[in-house]
Amino acid sequence: MDDSELFAAAHRLPTKRRPLLGLTILVVEDSRFACEALRLLCLRSGARIRRADCLKSARRHLKEYRPSVVIADVGLPDGSGTELIAEINQGSPRVSVILGISGDESLEEETLKAGADGFLAKPITSLAAFQHAILSRLPADRQPASLQDLSDETIEPDFLAFQDDMAHAADVLNEDHEGNTLDYLTQFIGGVARSAGDKPLANAAASLAQARMAGRPIGPDTAMLAGMVQERLERKIAI
Fold this sequence. Notes:
By secondary structure, the protein is an alpha/beta fold. It has 10 helices and 7 strands.
């Protein structure tokens, strides 16, 4: 190794301000708002981020690269993130840290049973909590001397990413009201709403999901949810 390589390696070593330097994190997340929050968390921590928005994209990525950490959302457009977690858990060599994320905290047990090392509930905004979730699960020789010394700050993702998610939700609502699509959409909108602190929208998504589970007519709940999504898109025009 020449002097330039030694210099480059030194700059990849973790520091107190950038404790995740040297790590590559694959984020599997379909919400642009949630993904933007994770991008900022990785940036502040010194980690390199790679992104996938569905199972197919994540699997394609994993055939070519081996990340240090995988953070997978449970609800994805082409299946459950627990499927991916189980696959990665059985891989050899295994990814060092696998974390599941969701706006629905009741899915934690399912995620851990699939093989995840930990679970993060959305919204994920605390820098220290994010770093601790990863560092505490790395091999002992890669952990910092003290996890108590992590500095904290609150991450606030760009609200335009929330608007992108609403545009996606509106497109799906306009095109498809089939059962599986609605199940995915209520999970998607509910997760985005909780991440953005939009309780009325989260409640509307939950109401539609409950109507589906109970076998009640879904027309009124679907129309209400579509109207609320459209209202949030119109706020962008007002801006």
